[in-house]
Write a structure and sequence with these properties.
alpha+beta; two-stranded antiparallel ribbon; 3-stranded mixed sheet
C-alpha cells in the first residue's frame, strides 16, 4: 500500500491511470493508495470514491476533481481560517474602522 500526501494526488492520477477510465479501473489500479490528512489520519482512494456515482472518468482532471471533492473536513485544515486578518467567516466585525481594503 502506498501512502501519500494530498498534494501528490494529481500526479498519481496522471501517472497511473489511462483515460478515459471506468470507476472499476480506477479502484483496481489506485484504490489502495492512502492519502494522508494534515491532521495525520488517512483514507484510501477507494473509500473516497465509493460514494461517487460516476462510472466513467473521461480525463485526469475529472478524476482528480472527484477525489478532491469527496475528501472530508480533515483535509481542509483550520476551518474558516483567514491569514489576511479581519474577522472569521460568518461573524461580524465589532469595529468597522479596522476593516482594510
Amino acid at each position: 500500500m502506498i501512502d501519500m500526501e494530498y498534494s501528490d494526488t494529481e500526479q498519481i492520477v496522471i501517472d497511473r491511470i489511462e483515460f478515459p477510465a471506468t470507476h472499476a479501473t480506477v479502484i483496481e489500479q489506485i484504490g489502495t493508495i492512502e492519502i494522508t490528512a494534515p491532521s495525520g489520519g488517512s483514507v484510501t482512494i477507494q473509500e473516497i470514491l465509493d460514494p461517487v456515482e460516476d462510472e466513467n472518468f473521461p480525463t485526469a482532471d475529472a478524476l482528480y476533481t472527484a477525489i478532491v471533492g469527496n475528501l472530508d473536513d480533515t483535509f481542509i485544515g483550520r476551518k474558516y481560517y483567514d491569514d489576511r486578518g479581519g474577522t472569521a467567516f460568518g461573524t461580524e466585525a465589532e469595529d468597522e474602522s479596522t476593516v482594510s481594503f
